[in-house]
């Protein structure tokens, strides 16, 4: 019985150990991270546009989906004892644990001063935003990639059929893929509302067009932001 209880709370033990790093100083080692969120349903082009933004603007990239898939394969002791999601097989991570895992990745990513981080696929629920703000700075910008649900579903179906060795297991199963899309849209309005409530800017970007046209709009949004923040850093 004792061992079962310990196993149940092991993930939170890891969280408490991480939190103790700054508890005495009041300053977290990730306070200098400059955060940009990019969110969107499967099939809206997050992966393609994240790759573009990382290369074009020199951002550090952190994918929440890749992190969850990595945890599934790694046997990370920080998530042992957690249930798995039936639709993906990834760990069903509590909101505070999800935020902490991202914090841990940024902390361990060799953060040197003020750096831009593109956090891909997070937040997915409004509750995650509250937990994020306990650990990390507010996002300076959220890019919300949007296209009609039927377009998302068609793209994911094609991706699952054609992706070959690069295919994600969740894309190869049509039922799983559709569930992920519907789950995103069920939460999207609440996520956007919570971000705006917390003072974080959200830019909606229509991705129902060519990737090149989307990239042109992303450049228009990102260039002034990067320039303004970089100038502010140089003056400080």
TrEMBL record:
A GO term (biological process) for this protein? nucleobase-containing compound metabolic process
Q: Which UniProt keywords apply?
A: Kinase, Nucleotide-binding, Transferase
PROSITE patterns registered for this protein in UniProt: ADENYLATE_KINASE
Which Gene3D superfamilies does this one have?
A: P-loop containing nucleotide triphosphate hydrolases
Q: Which GO terms describe its molecular function?
A: ATP binding; nucleobase-containing compound kinase activity
InterPro entries per the record?
Adenylat/UMP-CMP_kin (IPR000850), Adenylat_kinase_CS (IPR033690), P-loop_NTPase (IPR027417)
Quote the Pfam families the UniProt record gives.
ADK
Q: Does the keyword Kinase apply?
A: yes
Sorted alphabetically, which PANTHER family does this protein's record hold?
A: NUCLEOTIDE KINASE (PTHR23359)
Family statement: Belongs to the adenylate kinase family.
Q: What is this protein called?
A: Adenylate kinase
Originating organism: Colletotrichum noveboracense
